[in-house]
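Exercise: predict the structure of this protein bound to glutathione.
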Amino acid sequence: MKLFYAAGASSLAPHILLEESSLTYVVEKVNLDTKTWNEGQNDYKQINPKSYVPALETDSGKIITECAVIMEYIAKKATTKNLIAEYDSQTYWQQRMWLNYIATELHKNFISPFRKGNWLPNTIDSKQLAYKRVLSRLKFVDQKLNQKNYLVNNQFSAPDAYLFVMTNWIHRLEYSFNNLANLKRFDNNMRKRLAVDKVLKQAKRILYKTNQIKQNHS
Ligand SMILES: N[C@@H](CCC(=O)N[C@@H](CS)C(=O)NCC(=O)O)C(=O)O
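Solution:
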């Protein structure tokens, strides 16, 4: 499988899940400014005409887009790991509800001045406005994580990797974890997972490299 990603973007969620899954995969970096990949050689719109990440190319060459759907696809393929429950079980629907909630209520509201594809102007006010919008939704998740480490049955599964991207964005945007103690604990625990640590270290190297390139060019 091939994951098309951008550093720090929502593609981090399927990247973590692929690492958790023990499936064989490669990653392809997308330049969201130029909408190209393969060092600017290839047009990313040929992969995903919606021109955002993530996108997943399956082993049979299908292209799957939409983060929550990619998460379910990877989780289902990882038959040796319990990343999503059997279709139509109570647990499965709980996991589906979380994937959808994170995609629609958190991911899309987590717009910020410096994220790509935003409609808000790059101002402090916009940043505060986005926080106001996500805070009530984050508080809902925080309550659900009371005395629990993971969202469903207190066991790691696909939606946890997606939620981690949201808590990672709280850090990146320098938002506050005030009144979100359970989410903060969740974020800390997730960072201790081997797969998460590995993917984050890889992402850091990429960010470092990107900054280096920018500095060299300035
Ligand atoms: N509905 C999409 C949204 C994906 C999305 O917003 N991706 C952002 C990164 S987190 C992106 O690539 N933005 C670039 C752009 O829209 O130009 C999904 O769930 O996968």
